[in-house]
Amino acid sequence: MAALSIVGLVGRGRTFVEVQPGGALFDDRVLPVFFIAFLISAAVSWRWPLTGGVVGLFAVATFVPFAQQQLVPWSAVFLIGTISVAVLAWLSIGLTERGREVADDDHGDVDTDDIAPMKAMTLDRRRFLFTVAGGAAAVVAGTALGRYVYDLIWGPTHPESDLAELPDSPLDWAWCGAMTTTSCTVRARPTQPFTNAELVVARNADLTDVVGTFEYADVYDRVAEFRVDGLEPATPYFYAVAVDGELDLVRAGSFRTFPDDDQPLRLVFTSCARTGSNGQVFDAIRELDPDVYVCLGDFHYGDVFVDDVDDYRQVFDVQLTRPAQAALYRSTPIGYVWDDHDYGPNDSNRDAPGRASAMVAYREYVPHYDLAGPDSAIFQAFTIGTTRVVLTDARSARDPQSDPDTPTKSMLGDEQRRWLLAELERSARDHDLVVWANPVPWVDPAEPGADSWAGYDAERRMIADHIASLGIDNLVMVSGDAHMVAIDDGTHTNYSTADGAGFPLLHVAALDRPGSTKGGPYTLGPITGGGHFGMVEIEPAVDGVAVALVAMDWRGDELLRHDVVIRTGEPRP
Quick one: pLDDT at residue 154? Predict the structure, then answer.
């Protein structure tokens, strides 16, 4: 058994252990823990085989729920079966040796030929029954513990959606993004290799009032991209993809183009959904009918730690085909930048092993706004009404957290930081409101080595001084990563060397992950847990724009709210 444990550890990430999409953490964290437990069982069995066998059964039973959920079937069966055979061998050896010990102890008795075998048989039977009972109890207790711990770490944090799986159709999934007042991009993945694909866009749900048919512009690993233009502002449209002549009405979608004036807006911001999540939080968001859905990272928890683009593709496919998520993405335009778990392992930076593959997969699968280049960080921005939304990438260009916090240490990288400073200046001047979608916590006391802005305090101060020096007073920040919702009214967001340069902040997480707290303090919250999301509601006001920062849960209930009027300087009629 000790040998098997060592083989298992050596086989991590190789032929012995093949994880399902999103199961990288199993290989990286779970498997070593269980193999250490099996090594301990093996050590105990060397002296006490029966005790070691029962402990081994407990470890195997605890292991089973993890293996079932995160390994492909053949790998789970191989590991569970191999270890179980070893454990049963311990128990068999223990029972056999015990029987021999009993017989040897009775050799000096009278009538030993008759009594010893009977006594040995009686004790063997009793020992066998005790072992079976102990083993059964170990299996029941281990299974219960394994399920409890697995659900605690990776299970759903709130009720699952009632939406059923859609029947098979020509598409696996479709979603829409890069929305403007007159154009958008749709990405869709046919179930099979195809020769031709077209996107039909219409003004009505039955697709009879067609406004255009668009040929696919590019194909990435069977993902077809459709670039739609010639649309009207603030107008609902419906679409479906025809694959080799077969129109897919099962996975048809809809969207509403952005307005070109100061109309009321509803922007939803989220982060942190476990791989395979199908929670009711996605239904709650869809029922709000937002103008745009912005994910600030941890779209999934793939935690890919190898440079293999297929690993990233597979996790995207899992998320995009879950019923509740898929229904939301087919009905709402999206904006998306990654954080650590959907870019690489936990607390990733520019040195993440899968960086190159993450770049490829993002550009293949995500309908994004214009990026700086094929290998650039994925920072981008868009305008909706009179609001500018600025999305930054906090991972793929950042220096390692362990670097000294000097003015040269950067979370954003030189290229992105220059872009951000210019974008904030231009956007604040030309728009009523600027929303900076920043994936990681901003409010956090300086701390060397921290994963948040606390570990990049010099760069944070540089950005804050830029905001203060320009007198930008129409900025709102939305952040993610920590599994909590919180709001700050601007009291704690000023990290500049000037006074009174704070701005409102809404922290949004987690869609479907256990609660955690980072940073602070905040004027409202934090409230930790899953099934959470944030909303920014914008309405024209007489002397500016009225902005509501709202934290919500999967029931559609408001958890926190802060209202503020952003002055524009020009009274509205």
Answer: 80
Q: Which two tokens stand for residue 196?
A: 């031709």
Q: Which distant-in-sequence residues (6+ apart) come within 8 Å of 366 by Cβ?
A: 177, 187, 336
Flag residues of the chain having pLDDT under 70: 1-16, 23-29, 95, 97-124, 127, 569-573
**What is the rounded distance in angstroms from the CA atom of residue 329 to the CA atom of residue 141?**
41
CA atoms within 13 A on the CB side of 555: 3
pLDDT, one tens digit per residue, over 115-170 is 555 454 555 677 677 778 888 898 899 889 888 888 888 889 999 999 999 999 99
CA angle 185–331–382, rounded 5-degree value: 45
Burial label, 500 (beta-carbon count in 10 A; 0-12, 13-18, 19+): exposed
Cα separation of 56 and 88, whole Å?
9
Coil, strand, or helix at residue 31?
helix
List the structure tokens of 553.
């849960």
| 428: CB partners within 8 A, 6+ apart | 434, 470, 472, 474, 475
**pLDDT recorded at residue 122:** 54
Show the tokens assigned to 118. Answer: 């009977």
What is the predicted pLDDT for the residue at 39? 78
Cα distance between residue 290 and residue 183, in whole Å: 18
DSSP-derived secondary structure for 528-558: E-SSEEEEEEEEEETTEEEEEEEEEETTS-E
Give dist(CA 88, CA 4) in Å, integer: 14
